[in-house]
Amino acid sequence: VPQSEETRAELSQVAWVPRQIISPQANKPVMGIVQDTLCGIRKFTLRDTFLDWNQVQNILLWVPDWDGTIPIPAILKPKPLWTGKQILSMTIPRGINIHRSPDPKSSNPVFDDGVLIENGELIFGIVEKKTVGASQGGLVHVVFREKGPEVTRQLFTGLQRVVNYWLFHNGFSIGIGDTIADVKTMSFITQTIAERKTKVAEIIDDATHDRLKPKPGMTIRESFESMVERELNLARDQSGQYAQKHLKEDNNVKQMVVAGSKGSFINISQMSVCVGQQSVEGRRIPFGFRHRTLPHFTKDDFSPESRGFVENSYLRG
């Protein structure tokens, strides 16, 4: 228990948690929405998320300092429906304005790119890590600068209560089906990996018959390793990019990655496509006991599998 006025003042003005939301080190937030709420807030602000009268009545009870007014429904017929954006806007303080332009390269109105918040109303855009995470110029940063630490604390409370309540009733889970690629993707992956392994076999053959020329500033062995690593990395990257591009939007792993709550596209590639090259100290697995990596490989075997390239995905074992 604080014993003096100085201690009480220090706790309330310096050590108080809401005052630590913005770090003086980089003048940006160190706290943001994470994990469950971050995943849920993206799903909640999608264009096709609607709530009926009963859902809205229940969810409004979780809005901090709710003034009793219900927003006009976005859809009136055949029955009143409210969008997730409307309900989320009730937790954002009035007077907050944010505009993040969509990426001109990949911009498409159908994707609901960019974000526009006018006077605390979310007009368009899907809310994800860039907006509510610990990022400079995001919602947390703007509210802290415009309204202060106490209002920012209320924002955290409101966003998490509303979104977590909705997510609890809406549900979200990841199953084995989210890691299974379709037939077209699998055939492309198999073909790509086979092509790259053929290239590696050609490089090994050139090295064996002294046809391999060293790259500038490298020995023959270093050049050989560099060329093999490049081919194997291309196999992993091309397969992974193709799989990512052809994943459905309702894939639950992809939704988590896009929201920024957990995982990355490399995780998706390794689960669905291929694990890829395993490295030790930045290099392929070196030969150990008697010129081989493991007892079941032959001596001086330079093939991708022998040196740590995992062709299968986690799904395929």
From TrEMBL:
Transmembrane segments: none
EC number in record: 2.7.7.6
One Pfam assignment: RNA_pol_Rpb1_3
UniProt keyword terms in alphabetical order: DNA-directed RNA polymerase, Nucleotidyltransferase, Transcription, Transferase
Biological process, per Gene Ontology: DNA-templated transcription
InterPro entries reported for this sequence: DNA-dir_RpoC_beta_prime, RNA_pol_Rpb1_3, RNA_pol_Rpb1_3_sf, RNA_pol_Rpb1_4, Rpb1_funnel_sf
The keyword ATP-binding is assigned to this record: no
Domain RNA polymerase Rpb1: 20-179, 206-310
GO cellular component, one term: RNA polymerase II, core complex
Molecular function via GO: DNA binding; DNA-directed RNA polymerase activity
Enzyme class: transferase
PANTHER family found in the cross-reference section: DNA-DIRECTED RNA POLYMERASE, DNA-DIRECTED RNA POLYMERASE II SUBUNIT RPB1
Protein name, per record: DNA-directed RNA polymerase
Native source organism of the sequence: Apioperdon pyriforme
